[in-house]
Amino acid sequence: MKKTYYIFLLLLLVFFGCVKRDKAIATVGSPEDSITSYLSFAKDNSLPLQKKQEYNQKAFAIIINQPNDSMNKVKLFRVANRYYNMNDWNGYKETVHHVLENSKSSKDSVNMAKAYTYLGDYYAAQAVSDSAFMYYSKAEKMYGHDNYNLARTRLNKGMLQYGEGDFSGSEITVFSALRAVKEEKANDVLYDSYNLLGVVYNEREEYDRALEFHNKALANIDETVMPSVFQSKATSLNNLGFVYQNMNKHKQAMSYFRQGLEQENLLIDKPSLYAMILDNLAYSKFKLKESEGLPELFYQSLKLRDSLQLTAGIITNKIHLSEYFASKKDTIKAIQYSKEALVTGQSSKNLKNVLASLKQLAVIEPKKAAVYNRQYIHINDSLQKAERNMGEKFTRIEYETDKIKDENTNLEVQNRNLVFIFSGLAMLGMLLFVIKAQKTKNRELLFKQEQQKVNEEIYNLMISQQNTIETNRVKEKKRVAQELHDGVLGRMFGIRMNLDSLNKIHDGTAVEKRNNYLTELKSIEQDIREISHDLNREKSELINNFVAIVDNLLEEQKKTFKPKLFASIDRTIKWELLSNSIKINLYRIIQESLQNINKYAQANTIKVELKKIEDDLFLTISDDGNGFDVNRSKKGIGLQNIQSRTIECNGTVDIKSKKGNGTIITIAVPFENKQILT
Fold it and tell me: What is the pTM of this model?
């Protein structure tokens, strides 16, 4: 009753513990928190297997709906690891295939290689060696410069080859793994490689080399890299003892077996190894005819192996017991243990386990030796044939994998060549385009230069024509002035003199009339003199030709366009002191500005001002139009022309404008000759 109560209480604690976990997960905020919790519970060994599987499946259900990135793959591998530790092979395989497909879609070669390795582990656990070897080979071809994982994958292949009896192939593969980490510090890889080589050479009865590599393995144990729970030292000590056992040097063998059993926590960390060393120690004792501890050591090892369901170990133990009892003339027990070993071997998938049983039965049952030997030979032949076939399969898988790799390499080379060709064609096309664009730009530059020359010639012709007109005008005015002064004024002076002489006649009426005539003549004379002086003064004050041309431009603007134009030109400046190049550029700037205003500004008023301030000439053109964004419009052709012409004059330009507030362009140009009239 008390026992039942404690069981009931324990069940309640487990139940409420599970409920508590479920509630803890239910209150988690984010999916990431839920994943972390599920994965944590999935590896909690205090939970039942079914419950751990449920938590792992919940984590998987969340992860597969997340974006396919590197972190997503890391989480899926964690799910796979938990399935592996639970021996849930279906869940493990499904998860790894999901990672593989995601890696292929994102062209993630690193995680593809890792997924292939995981699939190799799956098929190795299922004893499907050819499939495991194929996936390891695929991973090996993808690891590239990842030397550590490359070596690990080759080691996995070597173990498969050893397990299938392909000892030469295993030896070659292990040495290729060692070459991969030749320049790196990887003691764990070195240990496993040397250990496997020792086992291979032991199987091939090359005992000296087996001892050499097992001692190398022992020397490369690095506890900072290799956890103590792996019991690497105990493993190597057992392997060294086993080689000496095969050499019939049982005293040396027992020394190593005893050292192995003395390793701390061996029974807890690796009970299967503990059972193996016990059995090996007992067998060497038996061979040395030492009865102390026998057959109890055999029984102790068998019990432990039976609890761990280690089929191969159980068979070996029972054959050793059969040998032991046969030596004691206890034929019944000897046959019993041999037949039990045979039945266990026949029920297993590995026929190698049957051979040792048949060999022992043939020894202890001589009457049936022929039957047992025939079975032995038949099974041995089948195994040798299977080993040859598996070796050929391994070779074919490696060949096909290499062929696929070569095809992929060739495809990569072809793609790379195509990229180079298209890049070359693109660069050639760009070069031709640049050359053509440069030619076009040069033609435009030549055209502008020619246009500049033509503009200057036209301006010079205009100046020349204006000078001719002005010269003729001055000459004509001078001629008229001379005619007035010398002709009319002279005759009028004569009349005045004649009239003056008539004043000597003292007729009152005549005198009065003469005085009137004289007064009138004086007035005419004064008027004519003033006209003559005005004509001569107009010539000296006549505005230079440049001003006249600008006036014509402004008059044309007034006649043609709606905006009111107000012009102010400083007429005290000696314009002839400026070079024709500056005058042309100023004229073109005024012309360009007016055109821009007429096209875009929609202005009501335009002001043009030319004035002198100290030693600089200032041109200001303003309007009350729409305005514009100066920063956005700087690349416009009109503004660029104004700026380039100002630069040619060694001047500066300032443009102020804002949308809706009109525009003001101010240009300052220095005089080449600083002598300016004021």
Answer: 0.56
- Same domain for 534 and 551? no
Inside any domain, residue 655 = yes
CA distance 26 to 21: 9
**DSSP run (H or E) holding 666:** strand 663-670
pLDDT digits (tens, 9 = 90+) for 67-76: 888 888 888 9
- 239-267: pLDDT as tens digits: 999 999 999 999 999 999 999 999 999 99
Strand order in the sheet with 605-613: 564-569, 605-613, 616-623, 663-670, 652-657
599 Cβ contact list (under 8 Å, min separation 6): none
- Whether residue 275 contacts residue 308, with contact meaning beta carbons closer than 8 Å, is answered with yes
Q: Which residues of 524-551 are buried (b: 16+ CB within 10 A; e: fewer)?
A: ebeebeeebeebeeeeeeeebbbbbbbe
Three-state SS for 515?
helix
Report how far residue 279's alpha carbon sits from residue 287's, in angstroms, rounded to the nearest whole number.
12
pLDDT tens digits for 76-87?
989 899 889 888
- Is the same domain home to 522 and 550? no
Q: What is the largest CA-CA distance in the chain?
A: 204
From the CA atom positions of the chain, what is the Rg in Å?
58
Question: How many angstroms separate the CA atoms of 199 and 189, rounded?
Answer: 15
Q: Which amino acid type is present at position 424? A: G
Check if the beta carbon of residue 346 is closer than 8 Å to that of residue 354.
yes
Using H for helix, E for strand and C for coil, what is the string for 153-196?
HHHHHHHHHHHCCCHHHHHHHHHHHHHHCCCCCCHHHHHHHHHH
Please report, for the domain that includes residue 659, its CATH number.
3.30.565.10
Which of 517, 540, 563 terminates a domain? The answer is 540
Beta-carbon-side half-sphere exposure of residue 524 (alpha carbons within 13 Å)? 15
Neighbour tally for 196: CB within 10 Å: 22
